[in-house]
Amino acid sequence: MTQVLLPRALDELWDFLEEDPNTAVYSGGTDLLVNLRGGRINPSRLACLERIEEIRGVRDAGAAVFIGAATTHTHLLENSLVSSEFPVLTKAIRVLASPAIRNMGTIGGNIVNASPAGDTLPPLYALDAEVEIVSRKEAKRMPVSDFIVGPGRVRLGANEIVKGVWIRKAPEFNVRHFEKVGLRKSQACAVASLAAALSLSEGGKIERARLAWGSVGPTVVRSAEVEEALLGRELEIQMLAEVARLVERAVSPIDDVRASAQYRRIVAGRLLLRLAESGCKN
Amino acid sequence: MGEVRRHKRHSEGALHIGASTPRADAYAKVTGAEKFAADYYSSDMVWAGVKRGAAPHGVIKGIFTDEACKAPGVIAVLTHRDIRGSNRQGVVRKDQPVLADKKVRHCGDAVALVLAEDRETLLRALDLIRLDLEALPGVFDVEEALKDGAPLVHEDNAGGNTLLEAHIQTGDGLTAFERCDEVIEGRFETPWQEHAYLETEVGWAQQQNDGKVVIVASTQTPFRDRAEVAEAIGLDLEQVRVIAPYTGGAFGGKDGITVQTLLALAALHSNGRPVKMWWEREESFIAGTKRHPTRLYYRLGAKGDGVLHALAARLYFDTGPYDHLGGVVMTLALEHAGGAYRIPHALLDAWCVYTNNPIGGAFRAFGVTQVTAAMEQMMDMLAARLDMDPLELRLKNALTRGEKTCVGVTLTGSTGLVECLERVERHPLRTERYAWKAAAGPFKRRGVGIAALMHAAGYGTVVPDYANAKIELTPEGKIRIYCGVVDMGQGNASANAQIAGSILNQNMDSMELVLPDTDRTLPSGSASASRCTYTFGNALIGAAEILKNRILQKAADLLMAPSTDDLTLAPGKVVNRATGAQIPLSRLGRLMAESERTAISHFRAPVAKDRLDVTDELRLHGLGHAVISYGAHLAAVEVDEITGAVEVVSYLSATDCGRALNPQIYEQQIHGGICQGLGFALFEDFRVEQGTVKSPDLATYIIPTAPDTPNMESLPVELHEPTGPFGLKGVGEIATNGPAPAVANALADACGIRMFRLPMTPERVLLALRGRETR
Fold first, then answer.
1. Which residues of B touch A277 (CB under 8 A)?
2. Predicted-complex ipTM score
3. In the structure, what pLDDT confidence band is assigned to residue B11 with cuts at 50, 70 and 90?
4. Is A1-48 a domain of CATH 1.10.10?
5. Residue B585: inside a domain
6. What is the CATH number of the domain that holds B445?
7. DSSP A139-152
């Protein structure tokens, strides 16, 4: 039997964490419970964050939006502020796991779990999101790309938690695209994914480009070289096929039971081609 | 134990053959009231679990159980030394130890059995058992296993690593290829397929005061289990009772022993306390059986006009370390290797081979899925070579009633392949295919493929395929059916109610079902081989007719009618049409003696009468069937050129099922078969490297979800089968055979690539599209 603590406020949580440093913090538990069952972790007790009001929900902060770490994927999917400001994030969550998992799992959990296949991560990278980290004494922010350092590895100290994530509104991006390649349509772990935010001029030229790939490296991949190569160009297939070569060089995928590195590398590049369809629509 | 299923929420009308009556089990299952084997608990229950060898091949030098025995909460730790019986189980060849003695032969071999107070204690105790294994070189490839000098899985097997081999020549055999205008060759590989049922292997057992061991198990085969359990652990047959509730899925994976023997053994050492064993998903993956992987070499020859002339095939089946049903699976595959076509000359060779891989076993469609995947792709490859329409080629060669298959079996029953193909030919998915293909969006390619199917039912020529139905008018006036064949979800228990209800003119509320129980119901064979409703239904018709006559006779006596001519059964009563007098069934039930109101009838299925030039051993393994279902499938697919993903957009099937007793249950069977077939075709890739499972759970072994399944249309082609109950033929398996070849042919139609290895994953498709070597 494992004791499960249900703090209602951060102060209560800090007390629990200081009492016993071997307390594992979780929110929806969709990753933690799998690891517990598999015997990969052995915490002395669990502290659940889902009832702490300060770290739940979506807040409009003017130029940016704050999403509390314990906000579920289902909540985000239904939130109109998120879907109007960050449709790329909404598109990613729509294909994240299954309804049951989306009802439990949270964005904070997806960030801290730091799987290269975490479906919210490529959008958060492409949106230049910042993670807010809090402890009893301080609060700080850092870009999500600095926060995540490797598979399952994040810059989170003892007795710190992720409070939430800040995303600047960026209305200048008029193409917002997400595609996940999985081995089935639902309940699929990404084999490769691409989040893209582009600004197209009226003449169809790319003025700004932010792209992020999931599952093709130890962390989500962004490439300045690729983004620069797109600037000033139009979204047409020939050009995208050329840039796809650069993508193949920028990613560093591995072989695993789901797919080979070779396939992930090829698909990471080819996912760009789908942007040709967006080129005409916006 | 010993419950009787009564049914709620049904309409008032009497049951009819051909009506889509709601399933008798639907309400209880949807509301969670139905008690599956997994739902059996008791207050003083003991948990039993197994220590597995976790090595593909090794000599057991020592099993150290002291520490586990001493752990608090551990009741007993048992090894092969604690078994008094043969310690061997199996269906045809009893080659599988209950608990390994000399060797472990695959990673899932059970070595020790632990009984503990609770599940946590059990898991800790299993970790405390130490095994001293001396590793042996393993054999993991079917063709390597047949070479001289290959490591032997069973040193005492006369055939080396060959469990069973077969060679059939008809007509002129290979020399007929000299007279062919076109010859096509193909080498196909099909993978293991995991049943992935919701309810993993599970059971509950207790030894009663009189020494009898009662086992409640999720099983397809209670009567066979009883005999196997008794022999393996040294009990008399009468000392074992097996009860088989509805299963939470089985699909062949429970066609034989899983937990039953281990549970009975545990029950002998639990001081009379009830024992439960429930495999975790990972354990089910490692220790449970799978669809046999195959390597299939095909050569097909035809005349220039498309008339098939010669077939040569070499079929290799990987049965893992134990027979289980490997030889029988191989033999059914052999019988179907040439499909439902007129092929005058054939040479077919097949081997079922021991390896140190996971255990191959029964899986819905039992070997026919694998050979159909190959043969139906061969037909499309031939059509392409001849520049013929694939459907036309099939029609040209389709067998009709009275003709012989390429192994020499005469089709004596209803034979509706041509009718099935014609239904597909006329369907809009076929007639409008060119327009649909042309409308593909950017980066998409569309294709349409077909497959023609046959699937034989029953056990074949030697093993008797029989059923004994028992039916009773209860003192309460209900009709109680003692079901001898397990309902694993396919709906045969409901079909039984419908058959008896229709004959006795009763509604569902009057029907009671007793599910299989070796003490209460009569031996009627396994729930397998598309035989359940065919064989048991025929027996039940006989029993219901006897009961009907007895009821009417008794009513005539009581009503003082001169004969039964004017009497008729109505829901809940007998009515005299001449006088209007009535007598309720409850009154008749009370007035009739038990022997009078109980009827029993036996049925034995017909077998092929052909004198085939094959070995007795092959006949024993089932060669030669008489009752065969047919089908034609069509898949419309869209291939994504960016990712290689294949989406099945629409799926059509036409099935010669004989009379559909219940169209809704017919459709559910076909849908389920197609979904499992699509899993086999596109998704399910059970990975094993050097005997070790690399896809150990449902996160890595990908089965299709609801969004992955297409719109399915399932047309029944209801040709009357003269030997079937009300003209029915079994359709539990046939639909599983269509998706792999239909989708592969559609993929070839869409992009011109042919996948010789299943499943057709996005990666394999994309790399094939790019002309690269796959992994």
1. 442-443
2. 0.96
3. low
4. no
5. yes
6. 3.30.365.10
7. EEEEEHHHHEEETT
